[in-house]
Amino acid sequence: MHRAHVISHTHWDREWYKTFQHFRVRLVHLIDKLMDMIEKDKDYKCFMLDGQTVVLEDYLQIKPKSHERLKRLIQEGKIIIGPWYIQPDEFVPDGESLLRNLLISDRIARDFGKQMKVGYLPDSFGQSGQMPQILKGFGINSAVMMRGVPLHELQASEFAWEAISGDDVVAVYLPLGYSNAMFLPKDFEKADIRMKKTVSELKKWATTDNILIMNGVDHEWPEPHITNYIKHLNETDSETEYVQDTLEDYIDSVVNAKPNLKKLAGELIIPERSRVHTSIVSSRIYQKQANRKAEALLEKYVEPICSISWLKNAKYPGELINQGWKYLIQNQAHDSIGGCCTDEAHREIDQRFTDVENIGQTLLKSYSRAIVRQTGIDRLAIVIFNSSMTKGKQLVNAVIYVDDERFILKDADGNVIPHQIDKVTEINAASLSIWSAGINLKETKKKVEFSFYVDFNSNVGYKTYFIEEEEGEAEIKQETEKGSSRFENDFFTVEINENGSINVTDKQTGRRYDKLHVFEDCGDAGDTYNFSPVKNDTVVTSETSKAEFEIVESGDIKTTIAIKLNMEVPKKLVDNDERRSDERVLLPITTYLTLYSKIKRIDFKTVVENNAFDHRLRVLFPSGVKSDHSFAEIQFGTLKRPNKMDDSKWETGKWAEKPLPIYSQQKFVDFNDGEYGIAVLNRGLTEYEIYDDTTIALTLLRGVGMMGKRELLIRPGRPSGIEVPTPDALCLGIHVFEYALVPHAGNWDEAGIPAAAAEFDAPALAVQNMIKLNNVGDEVKLFEVETLTKHIQSQLQGVKQGDEDIIKLSSRNLIISALKKAEDEEALIIRLYNAGSSTVKNETISINLENISEVVLTNFNEDLEGDKLSIDDEGSFILPVVKPYCALTLKVRFK
């Protein structure tokens, strides 16, 4: 006999076709009704709140007096919560974000006494190739999903799902979706007709005698007649036993049956029965950029700086950091960061990104300044923090406030360090602090922006440089011959073509790359969910443009050239979106190309004024090599992907949408043939495609005017979402895009691309130690009047002058993704992962901290401990093995 596990639930999009507050009104009534119903109907076993805990916070902010009642029902197993804080998108958030989503949820659930241990992912638009590893790090050994699974290949609803790290979980696919028993009629005979069909279909795919009945749907309330209907089913269906149940009990039943499960490995993005909406990664690209900026702020700047402060005796601002994470993760819900909500909802998302920025920057400035002030340096200096947490040479873009713009820069040993003045601005020093008005400050300072190179010996630490002012004006160099379109350094020769594209010769390999950086603009007949080609498209490239260029700066550190062009593109779609209009508009584009004298990388900062509707703008990088696959960074690793996807079955098999090889990425995509290749790094540009097995197409902008549309060429049938205008999603106006090119020999791994991407993503942080105020005495320092900085500084002990190396790794393939205080004890958490494709063995890690008592391996949840690592008197220990794409969490305890 089969056993049908009936899961009563709701699917709760916190915002989507309505705003958060609209849906919260409904949520409050839902939970009130649910608690009343459960307490009244003793046969009602349980109800699942969509695998989330943010709904508890949202509800209790309105009804705090219901806390104990809600907690009791959760502890009794009547209301099922977690393991997620919010139902995530799995491709735009980085590994730390997905991990913190679960970590925050776990700590909320502990307050309520119980949470579900199933990786419930009903509506994420495809599944990340690292999700099994992330789940297992929290003791979650199973996953349930609706989208992305290739049922034609699997021929089953249960399977073993393996991450690229090698971790695997038992996975359950929902072939009929997460609402296969929604809106059951109160007329049981009518309900039986639907249920019979559903059960019959599910039995075909089940590998055991257990099937999963999902009694719920988006934003809907529990059905009070479900318990009576289950009794009716058990009385009338002799072939199936029905039980209202939990996902955990269902998974246990499947596992105990010991089925022979087929294995699927890596990401799951096949749109066979459910749409996967791959193009959400380029909808509202400005929010993808804001997301990456916020992730970097918390992970690479705020937490490490606050951790260093905590190690020096300051209090760790965990609650404030946690609030920043909550705002960020709320924005990473699958519809929210997907860009496929209403404009009104996305404006609220913008505000949450601003909230993260405000919390993060306030903490960063206060704690970094406190550290720098506490060094006790009594002369003008800047301290450089290693934000990327990688070793080696990096560029520093610094800002100082001084009386004279000419100065000599020296390191801690007194060596003169070459630097380049980029910009000088005269400002009123009163603008540097609100409290300056209290001392009637009337004094001008020179704001000097300059650059130089720093060579970090450690992954975590800081270096100090001293500033000796000289009188006179600084020279901003422009040394390149006027009119020349050829630029060189030790690594590259760059030629600027008449159309603004560039030819690059790699001096180390002798390889020449022609016609790089051509812009391509095509029509987009899709919506916020999907790019869809225009039936009779007009594709415009910048190959026929006439470009102008000028040298912005040229010196010993770097050279920047501004390349300006106008692309004339069709203004909009016409004739039922089947072609682009004859009316044209200009897309003014200015690219600032920067070459560095000591870093093998070409940076691009492209400013686009978008004046066109319903189109997609890309920039093209022909690699000069041929391959049938690319490599792109995903969470904690790198994934190999085919340039083309098999679309032979989508029409005959009536798939939900046509599979397109439009892919997501984290911080880089690499294309190589094993001997040579190129990597394109990015800051928040999350979509790419490979053209003709040779060219990387990086999406800069995709502007569309509707949330959802029906009958797309690549997605027939109903609209996704609803048919509502989204003028903000057209992305009109000025946009700034940052990306970089790294030509290389060998493959991405041998070229150290993950570390290069980390350095591009999180530049070193420069902090000035003081600003002397001449008119009120040299003893007055402007930063000292900031109460928060002074408060933190008063707690600090043992801050060293000069340079300090705190944590040092040996392998460049090991990337630190987190440096933070432990959640529940006075310990330091270091999370690192092997970004390379080969196992790292016997890795030496050095921690230059006093009073270390032990270093242990722990899980992502920080509550289960593994091997204790033997640490010597110098603070060094060895990691025996770190497998490719595996993330490890170290807990450092102190005496």
TrEMBL record:
<dbReference type="InterPro" id="IPR015341">
    <property type="entry name" value="Glyco_hydro_38_cen"/>
</dbReference>
<dbReference type="InterPro" id="IPR000602">
    <property type="entry name" value="Glyco_hydro_38_N"/>
</dbReference>
<dbReference type="InterPro" id="IPR041147">
    <property type="entry name" value="GH38_C"/>
</dbReference>
<keyword id="KW-0378">Hydrolase</keyword>
<dbReference type="Pfam" id="PF01074">
    <property type="entry name" value="Glyco_hydro_38N"/>
</dbReference>
<feature type="domain" description="Glycoside hydrolase family 38 central">
    <location>
        <begin position="275"/>
        <end position="353"/>
    </location>
</feature>
<dbReference type="InterPro" id="IPR011013">
    <property type="entry name" value="Gal_mutarotase_sf_dom"/>
</dbReference>
<protein>
    <submittedName>
        <fullName>Mannosylglycerate hydrolase</fullName>
    </submittedName>
</protein>
<dbReference type="GO" id="GO:0006013">
    <property type="term" value="P:mannose metabolic process"/>
</dbReference>
<dbReference type="Pfam" id="PF09261">
    <property type="entry name" value="Alpha-mann_mid"/>
</dbReference>
<dbReference type="Pfam" id="PF17677">
    <property type="entry name" value="Glyco_hydro38C2"/>
</dbReference>
<dbReference type="InterPro" id="IPR028995">
    <property type="entry name" value="Glyco_hydro_57/38_cen_sf"/>
</dbReference>
<dbReference type="GO" id="GO:0009313">
    <property type="term" value="P:oligosaccharide catabolic process"/>
</dbReference>
<dbReference type="Pfam" id="PF07748">
    <property type="entry name" value="Glyco_hydro_38C"/>
</dbReference>
<dbReference type="InterPro" id="IPR011682">
    <property type="entry name" value="Glyco_hydro_38_C"/>
</dbReference>
<dbReference type="InterPro" id="IPR027291">
    <property type="entry name" value="Glyco_hydro_38_N_sf"/>
</dbReference>
<dbReference type="InterPro" id="IPR037094">
    <property type="entry name" value="Glyco_hydro_38_cen_sf"/>
</dbReference>
<dbReference type="GO" id="GO:0004559">
    <property type="term" value="F:alpha-mannosidase activity"/>
</dbReference>
<dbReference type="InterPro" id="IPR011330">
    <property type="entry name" value="Glyco_hydro/deAcase_b/a-brl"/>
</dbReference>
<comment type="similarity">
    <text>Belongs to the glycosyl hydrolase 38 family.</text>
</comment>
<dbReference type="GO" id="GO:0046872">
    <property type="term" value="F:metal ion binding"/>
</dbReference>
<dbReference type="GO" id="GO:0030246">
    <property type="term" value="F:carbohydrate binding"/>
</dbReference>
<keyword id="KW-0479">Metal-binding</keyword>
<keyword id="KW-0326">Glycosidase</keyword>
